[in-house]
Amino acid sequence: SMPSDVTLTDVRVVGADGDGFYLSGGTATVTGSSATTGGSGLSLYDTDAVVTGNTFTGNTSYGMKCSSTTLTSCGDNDLSGNGSGEHSGCDDACGMPTDGDTDTDVDTGP
What we know:
Elements: E1 5-9, E2 12-14, E3 19-24, E4 27-31, E5 34-36, E6 40-45, E7 48-52, E8 62-67, E9 70-75, E10 85-88
Parallel strand pairs: 1-4, 2-5, 3-6, 4-7, 6-8, 7-9, 8-10
């Protein structure tokens, strides 16, 4: 079958045995969604994906897993509290910003 375009908006998955979301092929847009207390939050394989503003927390494996995947845009996702870590094979920029002008960290630099 031909790869398809998938859009997930405000979808909630709780306690999945495996991946909360597993997307393979085509293009995917995942926004404002959550996959919590499952195996992994979001797994992407061979996909062009936009992943923004989601919550993938409290899973036993990773918040996000990426393989052979192009992240067109990825950021502002809560990837905290997952057993294996925030992500595997994705981009560190996918998680919540940890530095910037809106926090109390001391910015060192020019």
